[in-house]
Design a protein that fits this description.
- This protein has 406 residues and is an alpha/beta fold.
- It has two domains: 33-276, Type I PLP-dependent aspartate aminotransferase-like (Major domain) (Aspartate Aminotransferase, domain 2, 3-Layer(aba) Sandwich); 278-400, Aspartate Aminotransferase, domain 1 (Alpha-Beta Complex), CATH 3.90.1150.
- It has helices at 33-39, 49-66, 79-90, 104-115, 133-142, 164-173, 222-229, 242-249, 261-277, 279-299, 326-337, 364-377, 389-400; strands at 22-23, 71-76, 96-101, 119-124, 148-152, 154-155, 160-161, 177-181, 200-202, 215-220, 315-319, 339-340, 342-343, 352-356.
- The longest helix has 21 residues, at 279-299.
- The radius of gyration is 23 Å and the shape is globular.
- The mean pLDDT is 97.
- Bound molecules: pyridoxal-5'-phosphate (PLP).
- Pyridoxal-5'-phosphate binds next to helix 3.
- The site of pyridoxal-5'-phosphate has 15 residues, from helix 3.
């Protein structure tokens, strides 16, 4: 066959299409169309002065979102790349690290630290409860030579928010550095990097920032950067060495790897959307939309295993009533209603579903769609909720405390 022979015939492959979904799991959440449009702008070189202007703007927007005047930039990769970049840049083989552990992603931090050959002290506490800072205080008394304390601000697997400000103070009083995961919290509730005196925080683009997965915004203290530059041994990963990435994002623009330019355009647009909405308004949107979901679930008699004071707005954990099969229910939500929710992990496996309301997905319409679907499906399992009971309660909650328009 010559190239001419194919004229007029069907190409072997058609353009890609994907189904429409209502994405209400633990992440990714939906990406804003504005963000997706920005990502289709032309590729330019990562050493092009026009691209440096983009980087400069992204850096200053990230500083606003993280609330820091120290270093803020983005690691190419998923949230786990930010996690690994922080751990492997700060810790040397044999360093002692305390990991406050109350969920699945805390366990990932433990695995990473073990691979690094660090001496890991894991402070395991019950899922569904806020971490008690006294546990850390006691552990640091016993392990005064701890290099780093590791934590998660918003544990998506357990649906819990943790007191990282107090934890950071305790770590610093003991002379340790303090690292926290803000993958699910950044842009969905308050994160105050400088005010909470954090040393390293990493996030993900795919949750409350309303961008696709693939880039990890991070903030780094000058104290932590000095520590990394002064290490006795080089970090084991060249690609994830935070000091090298910081040098590319810094005034010298030192070449490192090929920066993912279109992901950075998307991040720029996502940050612009968040800052234009106003961070406080965005946090309030997450609070009020989650309150509507909880009102609906409560009215239907559905409960959460998470203690009320520790509940995350971005992710609601719902206990399944007796006789409701988790896999079957999630399958029905997906197949019949196009709604994706998350399964229970670890201590919650098989017992709960997890409902995400983050960024672009955090809108009242999603709450009503899901509650309506649950009202229709649960009676099939012998669990009668009454039609309109959940959706009605959610509407009443929004009437009393409206969510900011988005
Ligand atoms: C709290 C938390 N940390 C870390 C991660 C890992 O992020 P990624 O899947 O983008 O690597 C997630 C992902 O859901 C998360 O929820």
């Amino acid at each position: 066959m010559t190239p001419d022979d194919s004229n007029g015939s069907e190409p072997r492959f058609q353009p890609l299409t994907v189904p429409r979904r209502t994405v209400m799991g633990p992440g990714p959440s939906s990406a804003s169309p504005t963000v997706l449009r920005a990502m289709s702008l032309p590729v330019i070189g990562y050493l092009d002065p026009a691209y440096f202007d983009v980087l400069e703007e992204v850096e200053s927007m990230l500083k606003e979102v993280f609330k820091t005047e120290q270093r803020a930039f983005a690691v190419a990769g998923a949230g786990s790349a930010g996690m690994e970049a922080g751990l492997q840049s700060i810790l040397e083989r044999g360093d002692k690290v305390i990991i406050c552990s109350y969920g699945y992603f805390c366990e990932r931090q433990v695995m990473m630290c073990e691979r690094l050959g660090a001496e890991v002290i894991e402070l395991r506490t019950e899922w569904g409860k806020a971490f008690d800072p006294q546990v850390l205080k006691d552990a640091l008394r016993e392990h005064a030579d701890t290099r780093l304390v590791v934590s998660i601000h918003a544990e998506t697997s357990a649906g819990t928010l943790h007191p990282v400000k107090e934890m950071s103070e305790i770590a610093h009083d003991a002379g340790a550095l303090f690292l926290t995961d803000v993958v699910t919290s950044l842009a969905g509730c308050e994160v105050d990097f400088d005010g909470w005196d954090l040393d390293f925080a990493y996030s993900g683009s795919q949750k409350c920032l309303a961008a696709p997965p693939g880039i990890s915004p991070v903030a780094l203290s000058e104290r932590a950067l000095d520590h990394i530059r002064g290490r006795k041994t080089l970090p084991s990963s060249w690609y994830l060495d935070l000091s090298l990435i910081a040098d590319y994002w810094g005034p010298e623009r030192k070449h490192h790897h090929t920066n993912p330019v279109n992901m950075v355009y998307g991040l720029r647009e996502a940050l612009a959307l968040a800052l234009n909405e106003g961070l406080e308004t965005r946090w309030l949107r997450h609070e009020r939309v989650a309150a509507a979901l909880r009102a609906g679930l409560n009215a239907m008699g559905l409960e959460s295993p998470v203690e009320p004071s520790a509940r995350l707005n971005q992710l609601t954990v719902v206990s399944l009533p007796k006789g409701v099969d988790d896999v079957k229910l999630r399958g029905q939500l997906f197949d019949l209603y196009g709604i994706e929710v998350g399964r229970g992990l670890g201590q919650f496996a098989g017992k709960v579903i997890r409902i995400g309301l983050m960024g672009e997905s955090c809108v009242p319409a999603n709450v009503f769609n899901l509650l309506n679907a649950l009202e229709r499906l649960l009676p099939e399992y012998g669990y009668e909720t009454g039609k309109g009971v959940g959706t009605g309660a959610a509407a009443a909650q929004l009437a009393a405390e409206p969510a900011p328009l988005y």
